[in-house]
Design a protein that fits this description.
This protein has two domains: 1-54; 70-138. Helices cover 75% and strands 6% of the residues. The protein has helices spanning 2-26, 33-49, 71-113, 118-122, 124-136; strands at residues 59-62, 65-68. Strand 1 (59-62) and strand 2 (65-68) form a beta hairpin.
Length: 138
């Protein structure tokens, strides 16, 4: 059934091509000779460049497995973006971990170089003192 569909499609395409060519050729007698010649040459070049029908892929048996030409390169081309994505995600994760570590180091160094001992920040009375100071400064 597929071959009949492709054959009828090819027939319709050929018929359409003939109609277009007839329509283009029909109006050339009213044009000046040099323009008609340029159009004829352009049509000839277009026919020479037209697409040839696609050939079916060649199946090559190698070591008990069938491969379609160079499927190895196709698979590599499909896997390569995935490898790049994973490498990018790992790099981003490592960079974020480094950023977090540097932020924690900044907080630690600020706590250790401050005049207050670190235990003062965990004291509930000190937290209440800070809140009352903040409201009285407003």
């Amino acid at each position: 059934m597929t071959t009949s569909l492709s054959t009828s499609g090819e027939a319709l395409e050929a018929q359409f091509g003939r109609r277009v060519a007839a329509r283009l050729s029909g109006g050339t007698h009213a044009l000046p000779h040099d323009i008609g010649e340029r159009l004829r040459v352009a049509r000839t070049q277009a026919l020479a460049r037209r697409r040839l029908p696609a050939r079916a892929p060649v199946v090559v048996a190698s070591g008990g497995t069938a491969t379609l030409g160079n499927v190895w390169w196709t698979r590599l081309g499909a896997v390569l973006p995935l490898v790049a994505l994973v490498a990018g995600l790992i790099t981003i994760s490592a960079w974020q971990e480094d950023q977090r570590a540097s932020e924690l180091a900044e907080v630690d160094s600020a706590l250790l170089t401050d005049d207050l001992p670190p235990a003062a920040y965990t004291d509930p009375g000190f937290a209440q003192f800070l809140k009352s100071e903040a409201t009285s400064n407003r």
